Amino acid sequence: MKVDHSIFEAMLNAKGINKKTFSQYAQIPYYTVAGWKKSGKVPAYAMVLLKSVPSPKTVTAKQLIDAGMPRAIFWNNNLTKTVPNDIFIISTLKRSYNDFIIHKFIEFFGEETLLVALMKYRDKLSDKLIHSVMTHIDTPLAHT
After folding, report:
1. Closest CA relative to residue 23, chosen from 39, 8, 34
2. Contact 35/73 with Cβ under 8 angstroms?
3. Residues 35-78: pLDDT tens digits?
């Protein structure tokens, strides 16, 4: 299965990296990564590798919108304001969450970052919200 190149580009931009950095991280020759643009398709394994690239410690709403998150979720946010990941995750989940948003957060931030944020601010979150997020995370903690 191949993925549309525009999705790959959006995820690169959202993660704040370029193709050269990705090629070094994934140990794929740069000319191979650059060649995906010409074909318009990216191998599925590249998206899996891209998801494993560590997220930056801070994030903006614009980065998540670029990664495919609906703009409406951030209607009252300053799109360019840099916020620590954990605060951004928790404040957004407290305002609105559903399966799609949780999936996008896992895709962008990774399960570990999401878990750390949940545990850090557990006393500020409802059990229902925590349970909803945990059902999407594939760890032993999620099954307790």
Report:
1. 34
2. no
3. 998 888 899 888 888 877 776 688 888 888 888 888 888 777 78
